[in-house]
Amino acid sequence: MEFYFVYENGQAKVKVDFKNRKSIKISVEDDKTINVISPLFLEEEKVREVIENKRVWIEKHLRFYKEKLSGYIQRDYKSGDKFLYFGDEYSLVVDKNPKLIKVTSDYNEKKLYVISPRVDKENIKELLYKFYREETAKEVRRAINKFQIYFPMKPTEVVIKDQKRRWGSCTYKNKILLNFRLSMATRGVLEYVVLHEMCHMVHKNHSKDFWNLVHYIMPDYKEKSIWLKENGAKIEV
């Protein structure tokens, strides 16, 4: 079953797949595609009704992907390319060296140095992925230690991974997953995302109590949230 979801900024194709399950699942794949997995017992009219009831949520995610695509940065992974690093723009410097593999940053010069025997696009990209993942992991550990005093429990596990659609998430077992690109944001924004997920260890939803807890620990969290919304499209390796 397919039909189009029309909204102010355009339209997106809705792809509905009926399966043997108890609940309906809706996910926004990109700015043009909405995937729906529906229980077999739901009629098509009811599926459309559920989607319409989720209009605000769906439009929010469609706009996010549209804005991300409009701000997409084409990179060659060569010297001169620009990358965010803890909120500042750094210039990439690629140096070929047959005996060394290393990625370093220079705060004063605002440069990222990638040294490697191979300087092809895929290898440089892979080295940068590893660099940002490690930088994010270090900063996340620091942030968790900073905020741990506010919580009676600890994360059961912290995983830094490549998440396309989320900055972070927290499971019901208090496993926290965070986007490896967070070291491209400011340290304050990274701390906000970490705190946001830690607060989900206490409140598994976005209730008033949840936001009160976030505000209690980080009174200026809204500024960080706004930065992320305004600059999220630039956070891409």
From TrEMBL:
InterPro entries, per the entry: UTP_pyrophosphatase-like (IPR053136), YgjP-like_metallopeptidase (IPR002725)
Sorted UniProt keywords: Hydrolase
Keyword set includes Transcription regulation: no
Domain YgjP-like metallopeptidase stretches: 22-231
GO molecular function: hydrolase activity
Gene3D superfamilies xref list: Metalloproteases ('zincins'), catalytic domain (3.30.2010.10)
KW tRNA-binding (keyword) present: no
Protein name in the entry: Putative metal-dependent hydrolase
Native source species: Hathewaya histolytica
